[in-house]
Amino acid sequence: MTTTETPGTLRRIFDYSARADPYPLYAELRETPVALQEDGSYVISTYREITDILHDPHLSSDVRNLSRPMPAPEEGVTTAFIKKDPPEHDRLRRMAMRHFGPPHSPGVVAGMESDLTATVGSLIDDFAGRERIDVVDDFACPFPVTVTCHLLGVPREEEPRFHGWVNDIMNSVDYDPETDPREKLDKGVRARKDLRRNLGGLVEQRHGRPGDDLLARLANDDGPDGRMTDEEIVATAKLLLIAGHETVVNLIANGMLTLLRHPQVLERLRHEPDLVAPLVEELLRYEPSVHIIPWRTAYSDITVADTVIPKGSQIMLMLASGSRDPKRFHDPDRFDPDRRDNQHLGFGSGIHSCFGGALARRETQIALTELVRRLVRPRLVADPPPYRPSPVLRGPIHLDVEQGDG
Questions:
Q1: Helix, strand or coil for residue 77?
Q2: Alpha-carbon span 173 to 180, nearest angstrom
Q3: In 223-351, which ranges are continuous DSSP H helix?
Q4: CA dihedral 281, 257, 129, 249 (to 10 degrees)
Q5: How far apart are CA 179 and CA 183, in angstroms?
Q6: pLDDT digits (tens, 9 = 90+) for 207-221
Q7: How many beta carbons lie within 10 A of that of residue 224, not counting itself?
Q8: Which of 19, 168, 360, 391 has the highest Cβ tally under 10 A?
Q9: What is the pTM of this model?
Q10: Average model confidence (pLDDT) across the chain
Q11: If we measure between CA atoms, which residue out of 63, 25, 74, 18 comes closest to residue 45?
Q12: Distance CA 52, CA 289 (A)
């Protein structure tokens, strides 16, 4: 049997008590590669089946194609291209990538190297004289917002406001109506509107004024696919700010936690800085930022692992489970930065693979290298640390580390 109703396992994965270590539950889930849920949705948990789905042209990322469409987070607002299907997705992604990476702009991330290093250095400088730091609040959270603001061309004096908006939005993502005050959700709603309005104003200012920042390049580009509308530029900028922020924050925090749990690897990185590239790839497999793609759907009935999934059904992809599938990875529960053939699912796969993956990789590589190099005898204060509520975007909400002689 490849299909069964297994609501118990999925419920336990979503329960907060599993947040610190969901991997034994993923192993349970993989016993049924395609699992039908009580609500009619399907959960896919094995590597081969997940990759097949991610590369299936019959699959949709547009919520309007669900049998029971989900409400849009912002009514009447243009959505980012990751929530669109071809050909519209492909057109917008090509237009964005002309100015963000290969093949048209291969040097963008490399050109940010000095800025990334300087930002990391400045944040770590603030640790001087402190015996305890929170890797999340003091380092991982401010870093990617600062980097993306510089990339977009946000004026330096405006950056603190952008930091506040991103923080309010991310806090609202974890909103629980049973335990959280309504203000937490309301602040997120206001922050989305303020962020969208201010990005729109910056885009308007760029028209007719070519420049080196991403907003200026998008606002003045007439490439083979035409020019993005202002609303599409704002949606793309928000994607970089919000999705990029959460990916990098969790990746840095998960990375530092993993290194502190594996002190021999931490020492290797301190003395072998070139180890950081394969180390981050293994981190994306072993402790990724994004554990679950909560939904996809199909334009028509599709067959996965001999199971027919009806048109319009919600499909949930358990990326982190697939990346620990023993049928694809040898000894998958071992952290091994020397692992070969590491085709993990940390950034997804197929046409919707992470748009900012190259930048997220380099941000994390520089961050972990410098943290390991400059922190003096770092030690975890609590293991496991407290985790944020989300099982989808999984990472510590705080990561307290002591340094020095103690």
A1: coil
A2: 12
A3: 230-261, 263-271, 276-286, 319-322
A4: 60
A5: 12
A6: 999 888 999 999 998
A7: 8
A8: 360
A9: 0.93
A10: 91
A11: 25
A12: 21
